[in-house]
TrEMBL record:
EC top class named in words: transferase
Record family assignment: Belongs to the gluconokinase GntK/GntV family.
Species this chain originates from: Haloferula chungangensis
Keywords: ATP-binding, Kinase, Nucleotide-binding, Transferase
Enzyme nomenclature, EC number: 2.7.1.12
Any Pfam family matching the protein: AAA_33
Biological classification of the source: Bacteria, Pseudomonadati, Verrucomicrobiota, Verrucomicrobiia, Verrucomicrobiales
Keyword Cell cycle: no
Origin: domain of life: Bacteria
Name of protein: Gluconokinase
Keyword Transport among UniProt keywords: no
Recorded metabolic or biological pathway in which this protein acts: Carbohydrate acid metabolism
Reactions mediated catalytically: D-gluconate + ATP = 6-phospho-D-gluconate + ADP + H(+)
Length: 166
């Protein structure tokens, strides 16, 4: 059955590191009774090591990753929320090429709030250093192909705003 005629929703929660993709994506998946997939789980160990060492990923580091994510989304027959940075328009287009009917939501927040959240999370042992935030923001191509939601407030309220926006 073509995707458009089913109730199966495929939503990509995009944004820079620390924008809350995982936090809000999990809440949204709960509201939609959808599966939640974290694109960080699809990065190669080399890509994770690179980021952990403070080096930004480049286009070539993201090629296989995006293909695997697009194929994985297309293969799912349940509603799915994917937390994925999807910083460039070309990355989002690659996902669209592989999976029909994707809705993209961009989470944003003020830079200093993002930095504080990343630093707090890094103290808990997360691999991503806040030194990479500037390159994440430089790489981000915000476009009218995404609904923009400001991630400020209790996560369940932000997820409810996402739900009414999509
Ligand atoms: N609405 C919110 N209110 C308070 N804290 C939040 C909110 N959203 C996210 N956070 C916190 O900010 C940090 C970053 O959030 P999260 O890990 O969800 O971001 P992310 O976009 O998935 O990041 P990354 O891509 O780097 O994995 C976490 O510690 C999370 O608890
Ligand atoms: O495209 C990218 O640069 C990556 O997906 C990053 O966004 C990280 O995976 C994430 O920030 C980890 O915390």
């Amino acid at each position: 059955m073509p995707y458009a005629s089913t109730n199966c929703k495929k939503i990509v929660i995009a944004g820079v590191s620390g924008s809350g993709k995982t936090t809000i994506g999990l809440e949204l998946a709960h509201l939609l009774d959808a599966e939640f997939v974290d694109a960080d789980d699809f990065h190669s160990p080399e890509a994770i090591a690179k980021m952990a060492a403070g080096q930004p990923l480049e286009d070539e580091d993201r090629v296989e990753w995006l293909s695997a994510l697009g194929r994985s989304l297309a293969a799912r027959d349940r509603s799915t929320v994917l937390a994925c940075s999807a910083l460039k328009k070309s990355y989002r287009d690659r996902l669209r090429e592989l999976c029909d009917g994707l809705t993209f939501v961009l989470l944003t927040a003020e830079t200093e709030r993002l930095r504080e959240r990343i630093e707090e999370r890094a103290r808990g042992g997360h691999f991503m250093p806040s030194s990479l935030l500037d390159s994440q923001l430089e790489t981000l191509e915000q476009g009218d192909d995404m609904i923009v939601i400001v991630n400020v407030g209790p996560p369940e309220e932000v997820a409810a705003r996402v739900l009414s926006g999509i």
